[in-house]
Fold this sequence. Notes:
The radius of gyration is 32 Å and the shape is elongated. 39% of the residues lie in helices and 18% in strands. α9 crosses α10. A 7-stranded mixed sheet has the order 3-4-2-1-5-6-7, with helices on both faces. Strands 15-14-13-16-17-18 form a 6-stranded parallel sheet, sandwiched between helices. By secondary structure, it is of the alpha/beta class. α1 (8-19) links the parallel β1 (2-4) and β2 (25-29). The chain contains 20 helices and 23 strands. The longest helix is centred in the middle third of the chain and has 34 residues, at 329-362.
Amino acid sequence: xxxxxxxxxxxxxxxxxxxxxxxxxxxxxxxxxxxxxxxxxxxxxxxxxxxxxxxxxxxxxxxxxxxxxxxxxxxxxxxxxxxxxxxxxxxxxxxxxxxxxxxxxxxxxxxxxxxxxxxxxxxxxxxxxxxxxxxxxxxxxxxxxxxxxxxxxxxxxxxxxxxxxxxxxxxxxxxxxxxxxxxxxxxxxxxxxxxxxxxxxxxxxxxxxxxxxxxxxxxxxxxxxxxxxxxxxxxxxxxxxxxxxxxxxxxxxxxxxxxxxxxxxxxxxxxxxxxxxxxxxxxxxxxxxxxxxxxxxxxxxxxxxxxxxxxxxxxxxxxxxxxxxxxxxxxxxxxxxxxxxxxxxxxxxxxxxxxxxxxxxxxxxxxxxxxxxxxxxxxxxxxxxxxxxxxxxxxxxxxxxxxxxxxxxxxxxxxxxxxxxxxxxxxxxxxxxxxxxxxxxxxxxxxxxxxxxxxxxxxxxxxxxxxxxxxxxxxxxxxxxxxxxxxxxxxxxxxxxxxxxxxxxxxxxxxxxxxxxxxxxxxxxxxxxxxxxxxxxxxxxxxxxxxxxxxxxxxxxxxxxxxxxxxxxxxxxxxxxxxxxxxxxxxxxxxxxxxxxxxxxxxxxxxxxxxxxxxxxxxxxxxxxxxxx
Length: 629
């Protein structure tokens, strides 16, 4: 495996491939990485520390561009992944290549070069631009098919997978800030929600579609019952483990149908009600009522037809009628009143014109938080991650107020299009969070690129509202753990979560390098569960076994069966076809309520939840060890 990158995701991905999948990895990083404090990853901590020491020594010897083996890993130092560097890293012999540079253009250029060097190479690209990623994926797959001779391409896994760390981490970050929705995994036609449920005395939590984990006993009640405060969560437990976990909450899986909110009006298509303020609308309504009253009075005094009376009233209103000299006194009085109403109408019409012009001018400007707003999420930072999180929150129909210090941030255009209120200012300055209505907010989601800024905002928000739900994006894993434990101890009744984007994204990138279709990742405390679509064929742990027999506690669990993957010309038992049709329902593509006695066939494709080590064993790359799962 070859991993090329210039930030913490590259190192975390390399550690994931080595520590979980047991792969030989060549890491290509720029020389400047030696001065960056990199995040550590669980069991790969010692290896990463040794790696940094050897990289520093290589730089001191002037070894830029040279490869130095470090255990199961080689390090190649180069500013860019050029053809020479890729060849030196062994791309021509590699099974997979991950390009995770922060710049999209750098990744695309290196991918085109790598595909030319090795048409059978499995490629994984990190791209922020979704539309461009789709085109690049099709282009590289087509090039691989042509190089493999068309029909022979199917014999090799030369797939190209385009992922975004922002898209991978955004669902978990957004869902953590939403009450009642802790984690979400979304893919085409599939939306799953993982919900934390607290057991009631004498009752077991409802299992939902499946019980994903038993949480560690972190609350004081659980510790008082004799449970260890630092007890690790149990991932993918069996029924006996769930029943035996007294006083501990669970994470259960629910399937939800997504129905996004209506799109805001396009720029220029402004609703009529938003053109004028309520006070102006009431003023216009009062003027219309006065005109109608004057017309009725004129018709009653003179006995003329109501339509003619209304017409004469309008002429008097705009001062274009002849004076009522020699006419009855009532007619003269009504003409004077109509002229007075006309004078009052002039400033109202002027105000209407000015308000309409101001409305059209501010449709392209940023909205301010409305008065009385409450129960919203305050989002700090509108960079790559913040923009994706904002989009996901709006899809979940959650009110959001954004805070951004850079007036040229890329997420401001998205906020303007979604008509989300934005406060421009430095969050560390006094009054900025108050302008975002932090005292009435439901949650604070700090996803700026600076750990200290996120922490300072969280501490200040907690001083304003001690029970505020806080979600932090922190780069350093040790720092995130320390902050999480300290805030949890200081505010035991408030919800505190610390999340690292590379921590959430690395498992999905690693799974794609192994050739698996990763649907998403759900964090469970400081651990991660992966959701993948797996073909039963070629996996002896699944093929020919029942759903109950295929379940391995702490490693993997079959959640759903994907229909429509049947080998051509194969005859299937009519009973099983009827079973699938009945359970899938009309238009259903996934069978969720699988019977434990259902036998998985070679042609089936299943959706599975798995730990990282469990997925590695399923790939046949590493022996499963219960103690390390």
